[in-house]
Structure formats: C-alpha cells, structure tokens
Amino acid sequence: MNTRERDFWDDRSAPRIAPEHFNEIVATAADLAIVLDLKGTVQSLVVNPLNPTIGRLDHWQKRDIREFLAEDSLAKLEKQLSAYQQGEVPPTDAIEVNHFDNANWEFPIRYTLHRTGDENLILMLGRDLRPVAELQHRLVKAQLALEKDYESHRDYETRYRVVMESTRDPLVLVDASSGRITDMNSAAAQVLGAEADALVGSLFGHEFNGLKRGELLDQLMGAATSDTNSSVTAHTKRTAKELKIQARLFRASGDKTLLCRLEGAGAQEVIAEELSEVLTLLFREGADAVVFTDPTGMIRNVNEAFLNLTDVGQLGDIKGKSLSDFLARGSVDLKVMMDNASRHGSMPVYSTRLESAYGSQLSVEISATHLEARQNGGFAFVFRDASRLEVVRDAAPVNGAVSGEAMQNVMELVGSAPLKDIVSATTDVVEKMCIETAVGLTRNNRVAAAEMLGLSRQSLYVKLRKYGLLNKGGDE
Hints:
Beta-Lactamase; 6-stranded antiparallel beta sheet; 5-stranded antiparallel beta sheet; 15 helices
C-alpha cells in the first residue's frame, strides 16, 4: 500500500465524506480543531470528546483568537497569518502556543495549519501538550532528584575520604565474602609497603606470610564475631612487620565488609613522636608555669613561664635547688603536695604563695602529679597565678569549715552580750576554721599542720582538744 501523502488521497480513491462525518473525523483526529479566517477570527471550532479536560470553548466562536492567547504566543500566530495573507508558504509546519481565557486556566497546544478550499479560511488542528508538559515536568523533577542524590553522594564520599586520610590508624576495608581489599587509607598502604591503588582489589591474605588461602579471612571473621575484643597477629610480606589486626564486621547495601585496623610498633612510635613534639611545645610556650623535680623535690627542669614568675634569669641558676626555696611555707608546702600526690597520684589544687628570687610574693594555685617512671621519675608541678582572683574571691570559709550556722550564732550574740565576749567568740570561730583547714590540707598530718600555722605541736594539740578536733582522723 502506498502511503506517500501525494498519492494517499487521489481523485480516484477519494471518498465522498458527508459534512457530519467530516466534523466527527476532524474532532477525533485532533484535540482541538479551529477554522480561522486570515484576520484571526474564530469561525468555528470543535473539541475532541475523548479529551474532556479542555472543556467547552463555544464562547470563542466569532471572537478574535488573540483574546485567548498568551502574550508570548501572539508573534507566532501573526507570522503564520501574515504568510497566508501574502500567499506565501508558511515558515513552519507547526506552532506551539499557550491558551488562556477568563476561567483563569491555561494550557499549551501544538497547532498544524492547513489550507482549505476557501482562501480566506485556515484549518488549525491542535494537539494538547499538557500530557507532554507533565511528563517533561516529571522528568525534570527526576533529574533534579538524581542531581541532588549525586551531590549528596559526593558530599559523603568527600567526608569519608577526609576521615580515612586524616586518621593516624592504618585502616583497610575487606570484602567478607571474597577477602579482597575494597579500600584503604595511605597509612595502611605504607604499613603494607605498597601503593594503595595497587593493593585495592587484591587478596588481603596475600599481603602476609605463613597463611594458607582463606586462613586470614576466617581468623578475621572469627575475631570480628567473638564477644571478646580479640585480634589476629600476622607478618607482612613486603615490610616484614608484625601486625595486630583488629576487625569489625558491618553490612552495607546487603554486602558484609570487614573494617580492619592495623596495629604495629611503627605506628605507635609515630604517634608517640608526634605527642612528644606537641607536649614539648606546650611546656615551652604554655601560659602556666611548669616545674619538674626529682623524687626529693629538687628542680630538674622549668619552663619560661616559671622563670618569669620567679624573676630568675635562666634554668642553670635554679637547677638542682629545692622547689621549697620558692614556696612561702617552704618544706611544709612541698611535703604536703608531694605526700598527697604520692598517695593519690595527683593533687588537683593547692593554694599558697610563690616567693621570687628577690623576695616578692605572689598568690598561686598549684597542681601536683606524681610521675611513676623507671627513669626520670619524680613530680610535675603546674603553677597558676591566682593574685587576680583574690580581688573577687568570696570571703566564704575554705572547704566549708565554718558553716553559716556558726556565723549566725555569733551574730545572735549582738545585743545579748558585751562586745568583748562577741569578739572572743568570733576569734574562736576563725581559729577553729584555720585549724580545720590546715589539718585538711595536710591530710591530718599534725606536725605539718603545726608548722603551717606557726604553732608548736603541743599548742596545736591543746587547740584541737579545745575545739573537739583531737579525735578527727589519726595522727601521722
């Protein structure tokens, strides 16, 4: 059958179509058919009954079609009408326009324009583009969703890479079913002695000596699923290092993966070296004064901040001297701090006064730490300037030694007793407070407490008995 358009409908095969049948054919062949004169007036129109969403457009008839076109569509229609008016071939076979009317709705439609037997009339056959526009809108939304997912994936991928490369621990991801390396960081590649790109995709077990095929994977799976935090020991082929491998099993997208952390002496040495460097910088340039002493309290090393507090020119001037030479209460302060630090590991806060090389004194707060090392053991003291705090420090008793009730009892004496008796009672309260504070600071060391208060041991015992403190703790 010949379907070329010039042969499709010749004079011999042309059937005679009645007007009512022709209208039905046109109505069903297009979503909207309009007979338009060259001025743009709608002479007649018919809507496809199979597309009820367009609605009734009878009010368009005998009106200018421009009234129902969007402003951006007018130029397209004018160009077509001008060509027909001048008897020229239309510049395009079809135009796409947007219709609207007083019902505040609009829809896109694609028209093909056709000549008729009347030179003043044009047949416009339109296809509703709303299904196409809706499909395009869905495609655009799907594309935007894909772009968003892709950007989110890139974001997580970047974070994952940054975390993997920033951590000091050598990490390897191993497929739990095949035993092949799926990913690793640079630290792990360095431990295994090869480039990361060359190792990814290879069998993890081939990087170690003395293991049969699949043996390492079985051991890692066993360690990952055990209740105890066990590890697997293996020797690398390239670097001949002994490593402890800690494995953790997890599932992602249905696939099981082992996260393996490689531990070796080399890695620990790198961490220790970095930590040592950072601590050295903190000791040299820190704001707080730091002093290291031997087990007897003799100064070994101090930082610049301590030299500034004590007005000492250089370390050599005080190295080998006792730290007690710079404490207001001398050996009493030093013994209290060292005894407490030795007993408990550290003493968080101890308040006293620091005496400079030229006799001036400064209020300080000291923390002491006992360093239990085989070599270079001793004590570390950190001094913090507390002189500014004295201005705003509350005058409340230390460690709550004097309660509000005791002060209230003294205040109630006003008006009921002579001033001399009130002052005597107040003196007793303060004296008890000082004794309790000294006993507390020295951990009930009566000898040290007596030296701290400037009393003889016998006088201290008399006052302890006076205030009912004699049986508070044991004597040392």
